Structures are given as C-alpha cells and as structure tokens.
Batch of 2 targets.
Target 1
Amino acid sequence: MSKICDICGKGPSFGNNVSHANNKTSRTWLPNLQKVKAVRNGTVSTIKVCTRCIRSGKVTKAL
C-alpha cells in the first residue's frame, strides 16, 4: 500500500532523529492520508488524499 497522496503526490520524507548526545538514527515523516469517497472524472471512487488537499478544497467529496 503506497503512502502517496493521489491528488498532489505528497509522500514520505526522510531524515534523522538526533538525540541529546548527537546520535543520529534514521526516521520517516508520513503524510496524513485519509481514504475518501470522491468524485473523479464523473465517477465516485475511493482515493487516498492528504488532509491538506481535503482542507484546501482540491477534493470534491461524494454524497
């Protein structure tokens, strides 16, 4: 299951946890994806969308 927004393409970003002793371990930041029934190309389908796209109105939810 991919962790990529179907509208904007936002995906995981990578970096490091840095401790007080300056030890570095890898970590990931995942986008806040929600499964939403939305109208796409005139049909209703379930898509995974980040909350930024839902909030900004890029998704038209199905009734």
Target 2
Amino acid sequence: MKTVLLLLTIVFFGCVQAQHAPRFYKDILAFKKQDTLQAPPANGILLIGSSSFTKWTDVQTYFPGYPIINRGFGGSTLPDVIRYSYDIILPYKPRQVLIYCGENDLASGDDVTADEVVQRFKTLFGIIRQNLPNTTISFISIKPSPSRAHIQAKVKAANKEIQAWLKTQKNAQFIDVYDAMLDDKKNMREELYVGDRLHMKPEGYAIWKKIITPYLIK
C-alpha cells in the first residue's frame, strides 16, 4: 500500500511539474538527450537563438571544417535564452557563440522597445562573458523580415545600439546581415523568404553564409 501511495505521489508531482514547466522546457530536454546520444564537439562554435537557427538544419554543410553546435529553439526571445543559458550555452565551453535573437522580442506585441532588447542582450552577454571570459561573442543583426515590416524602425534602432555597444567590448562582434538582405532600392526581398514571409529560403541562408564566414574563429 505504501509503495502504491509513493508511486501515486511521484506521478502527481511529476504532472504538476510538467504543467508548470517554463517555455521551451521540452526543447531543452531534447538537446540534453541529444548530447547524451552524441557528444557535441569540444571547443565548438555554438549557434543560439530563435527559429532562423532552428530551421537552419543543414548549417554544418554551409561551414565545412568548423565544429558547429546548433541550439536554436524556435519562437524564443532573449529572456528564454537567458533562462536556459546554464543548460545550453555554458556547458559546451564554446570558442565562439553566435546569437540570433531579439526579433521575436520586438514582434511579441508586448510593446517591447529597442532599448529593452538591448538591455536583454547585455544581460545575456554578461552571463556568457562572466563564465566564459575567452569566448568570442557574436551577434547577428536582426534581419528585415517582410511579415514584420511594421517593426523595422525598432529593428534598426536595436541593431544600431547593439553594434555601438559591442564595439566597446573585447572578443565581441556585430555581424550585419540586414542591408545585404535588401535590394538596390533598400526594399525587402520577398524572394528570400518562404510563404510566411518570416523564415528564410536557402537563398537567404546563402547570404548569411557569405557574411558570417569571415567572422568564424578557427
């Protein structure tokens, strides 16, 4: 009887914990399981952030010879990445962290300002820098997504502020993909995106490859 009660108690609290698990908890558990099945490369190049990384499933083929670890989880904001930084950033001890995040923050509908995104990024940067002082931290600029044309003023402001701040930091890079994804008239290029006008086709990732490659740490 005591054994049955104990099992019921474990199941009950397990269900309660699952119901109250933070956003993307299952994604993080999946990453951890993946790491147990195949150890990620030591001293690698870590991609962290939102769906532009998540959907870059063949990213390793774009950067042959570089040890890529992709830990982007779709829909994430900077607070989400901060929450899980001790789970899917610091344990890898990467030589370089590439961050693509902030776009979902600005598009969240919560009136998140460019300044708030900058402060959130600085918080994430601080966590990485404090724990991994020799790691290069690279921020990929927020891209010009056609479905989010209405927030481009905030996107440009956030990019500008982050770029200026990173210039004051050591082992830090701002990788600007924004202008390269516009046409000659500075209009957004719809042909670079799939039907949702948010996520990229291979043509978009080809632009990213060309721009990002010179920044990768060998």
